Amino acid sequence: MLERAIEFLKTILNQGNLAINLGIVIVCLASELIVIGWKKSSFKAIFGKDKSVKTDLIMTALAVFNLTNLISLILSFGLFQVVSKLIFDNTNLQLALKIDNLYLQFFILYLISDFSNYVGHWMMHNVKPLWRLHEFHHSASSFSVMTRYRLHFVEIAVGKLINAIPYAVFGAPLLTFFIITWIEEFHQLFIHSRVKANFGWLGRNLFISPDAHKLHHSVSKHHYGRNYGVTLVIWDRIFGTFKSPVNETLDLGIPDNPYNKNGFLGDVWYSMKKAYASLMRKN
């Protein structure tokens, strides 16, 4: 048992994974710095006093060192991971592998993955206990590249279960899975950056832009329930949840924001406590 635990920790702290994770973050931070300059950059914010950015930084460090998944496993008691494995073991239909054309296969799997992300994101906002977890992410009162990693540990576990379902049914070649994951990862880092961009026609009809996602994070009640898309706009268009961003200053966060005041651990605990109370219908 002890040997398995040690091997598990070695896997988590694998130096190769560390280098890749750190490299992704540095590339995105550096790219943002080049585009918007030092004064407005996430790099500069790291050295400031913004408590919201400090939480982003802690979550990013945990993600880079692959500790996020371990903490997620512990805080969720492994429940969602066990259910995910059961789904894979008892489904695993590999339907996508029946498509011979690799380009068509990739396109279909990408659409399926993105739709799954849209549904999962919608659930995080509209299922009360899940929202209590997801509001930890939305409590960011300012954006940085690192806000992408500002996800509650239990939300991460739930998200992995939601995303496991389509892959259990359709399957995916390993390379295809990694390419889709990397596209989504870089896009998520970009839309949480401080870059101002609406992508024009592409932003209205194809890809979620940084401006569209900032609108999603707006405190204003006029922006509630808008722009759930993770990379593609198509699902928001189909289900009527898209709102095109306009050139306006947005206040980010949640109404009467109780976060960013009691430290990182205090915020993690508060979110869990609210989720549990909501699950028990006490809040």
Could you walk me through the main structural features you see in this protein, from its secondary elements to its overall organization?
- This protein has 283 residues and is an all-alpha fold.
- The protein has one domain (2-279).
- Helices cover 64% and strands 0% of the residues.
- The chain contains 14 helices and no strands.
- The longest helix has 25 residues, at 102-126.
- It starts with a helix and ends with a helix.
- The relative contact order is 0.13.
- The model has no long low-confidence stretch (mean pLDDT 92).
Brief description of this entry?
The protein has 283 residues and is mostly helical. It is built from 14 helices and no strands.
Largest sheet: none
Binned strand content = under 5%
User: In percent, how helical is the residue content?
Assistant: 55-70%
Class based on secondary structure composition and strand pairing: mainly alpha
Averaged pLDDT, please?
92
What Rg is obtained from the alpha carbons, in whole angstroms? 19 Å
Number of strands: 0
Keywords: Lipid metabolism, Membrane, Oxidoreductase, Transmembrane, Transmembrane helix
GO molecular function: glyceryl-ether monooxygenase activity; iron ion binding
GO cellular component, one term: membrane
Pfam families: FA_hydroxylase
